[in-house]
Amino acid sequence: MLGITMRVMRHAYPGGDVEERDALARDWPRFLGRVFPREALLYLPNIGAKITVFAAGPDLGALIFSGGEDWGLVPARDATEAALFARALETGLPVFGVCRGAQVINRLMGGRLADCTGHVATRHPLHLTRPVAGSARHEVNSFHAGAIRADGLAPGLTAFAVAPDGTVEGFFGARGRIIGVMWHPEREKEAAPLDMALLRAWLAGEARALLQAGVNDHE
Question: Which of 46, 54, 92, 151 could serve as 76's disulfide partner, Cβ 3.0–4.6 Å?
Answer without folding.
Answer: 46
